[in-house]
Each structure stands twice: as structure tokens, then as C-alpha cells.
Amino acid sequence: MYRQGDVLLVSVAEEAVPPHAVGAPREPRDGRGRLVLALGEVTGHAHAVVGPGELVREPGPFGPMLLHLPKGGRVVHEEHAAIALPKGWYRVIRQREYVPGSVRIVAD
């Protein structure tokens, strides 16, 4: 398990990757060539992956994402130390918080 701010990355065995992830549409890279895992609504900073890989968003407003890094990669953010990730699949989970009457994704 790896954590950077409000983003949690959990390693997933390849055989446990849901079949829909293999053929699902991939998230596009941003203008800097990064796979953005979470964009800070307040600061504009991003938790992002640099290097080769693919990002699949699962359905639903709180649906996690699946990240595939065939050669490994790094998670970067302007205010955190970079995290090196070994090659493989990861479930990307955003931290949530309870507010009376609802649950929302944490905004940084």
C-alpha cells in the first residue's frame, strides 16, 4: 500500500483485475503528459503518475480507478515527496469525508 496525501494506492494481483478493466476506455494524460489521479480543487496541484502506464476509471461518482504500470512509475505532487511504484496493477482510492447528509471526496 502506498499513500500520498488524500490518494491511496493498493497493489492488485493481475488475476484479480476485473475483466471490464482490460478493454475499458483509458483516462487521457494531461497537457504535461501525466496520468492525473487527483486534482486539487483548491490549490490546483495534482497527484499524478509519470512514466508509461494506463488509468481506468470505474463507474460511479466515488468509483475507484485502476492504474496499470507495466514498467513501474512514480507518483508526484508539488507538495509531497515522489513515491516510486513497482510494475503492476493498483487500485487508486481517494480519501472521503462525511458531512451531515452525504459523503464527499476530500478536496485539497
Automatic annotation (TrEMBL):
This is Uncharacterized protein. It comes from Streptomyces galbus. The lineage of its organism: Bacteria, Bacillati, Actinomycetota, Actinomycetes, Kitasatosporales.
